[in-house]
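Q: Predict the bound structure with fe (ii) ion.
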Amino acid sequence: MIMNDKILTDKRFIDKLNIINNIEVDRCYCRHNISHSQEVVRILTGLSKDRGLDNYEELSFFMGYLHDMGRADDYGGLHNVRSSEFARAILKDYDIDSDSIDIICYAIENHSGRMPINDIYTYINDNVIETDIKDTWAKLLRIADQLSRDCYKCKAASACRWLPEEKTVETWKC
Ligand SMILES: [Fe+2]
Ligand SMILES: [Fe+2]
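A: Predicted complex:
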């Protein structure tokens, strides 16, 4: 259990989550609710643990839970930037060192975008680590975000703007 899990009951966090839930109440595509965050935390924890990254549990936890919270402020725009700003503002009140905050905020700011699913599998299987640790985390957060979605059983898949090669398949569930 991470000591900082009290962020999940932090009013600032809950307020963002509630705003997003209200915006997405009729959304037919993937939502950005607490279940999505939990799934990103789970996958990111596994990927970063496999690479032996320092402090992987805490970093995965905060990245997973905070990466989309900026949607409350700028839903269809630069939510990655807003999420990073929110993460920096809230994390200063938590017991976490400044280097970790920098890594978390950098990864969140750079988490948008998707890759062809086959490139993701290659990246995972080759256990790639980027030159700069911040880029490794940004890439892994992006991958965990994409793999958290179950495109193969999504009723809106045919209308979704994700490219066919970006959609997740059941045979490779992380
Ligand atoms: Fe996002
Ligand atoms: Fe996300």
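A: The chain has one domain: 35-166.
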